[in-house]
């Protein structure tokens, strides 16, 4: 069976997969907007917005907050529709790529699970640990969606690393440290001023400065490993591509670090915090891209 995509798939799948990825990043950004505007309880119940209505009502006292929160909930439906569309497209045009279909099922199931976690977030009064888990689940969906987009551009089947084995293992260490950085970032946010509710903020209880320093230390470690992976890829790559991909990761990392330090030194202005959340999504996307591009499709064994 052919492991390459059909001409129809090459035409339409990139668009569907890119739209899916953009939507997953978009819901992270709009979720950040909900938090930064104190609109987390703009719709104080779930799955309804207010008791007796799934949409905001004129009588609600939440004002603009109800519109912002309802907009974010509506985008969840858009993300779910795109996940269904991606799955349909893969079954129609790329049935011979089961690895892509499995990933698409993960995205679809994840969107449904995220809706439930979002409901729990509201029902628990924006518990900071649930909010953090909600964000990390979104990052996981961005990861799978990015993998779908970049992996579908390669032929199916087994792949082999184009890097030295030590560099190949180091890139997975980098991915692990990236996950730690994201977790610490959510704790920083959960300990700071942007709780998601303008009236009754829920906080973790940790000292924001201490957690911020710990987060910054993890970022420094991440940057060091990123430099090592980029240099290792440049020196050992067996084909052009991986080193350039890891250079992009390094540049996005430095930009994200700069935003992080500026926002900390300027008392966390909302615009910079939102830019930092977008940067986190962008960093996840480029890391996945670099990992995918660091591998080459393995020739299929002969059946003669």
TrEMBL record:
The GO cellular component terms are:
membrane
Respond yes or no to whether keyword Plastid is given for this record: no
Which InterPro entries does the UniProt entry name for this protein?
A: COX15/CtaA_fam, COX15/CtaA_HemeA_synthase
Question: Can you name one GO molecular function term for this protein?
Answer: metal ion binding
Cite a single Pfam family from the UniProt record: COX15-CtaA
- Report how it sits in the membrane: Multi-pass membrane protein
The record's subcellular location field reads: Membrane
Lineage, top-rank taxon, reads: Bacteria
Transmembrane domains' residue ranges: 12-34, 74-91, 103-123, 129-150, 170-191, 211-233, 245-265, 271-292
Q: In which pathway does it act?
A: Porphyrin-containing compound metabolism
One GO BP annotation of this record:
heme A biosynthetic process
Keywords from the named record: Cell membrane, Disulfide bond, Heme biosynthesis, Iron, Membrane, Metal-binding, Oxidoreductase, Transmembrane, Transmembrane helix
Q: Identify this protein by name.
A: Heme A synthase
What species is given as this protein's source?
A: Janibacter limosus
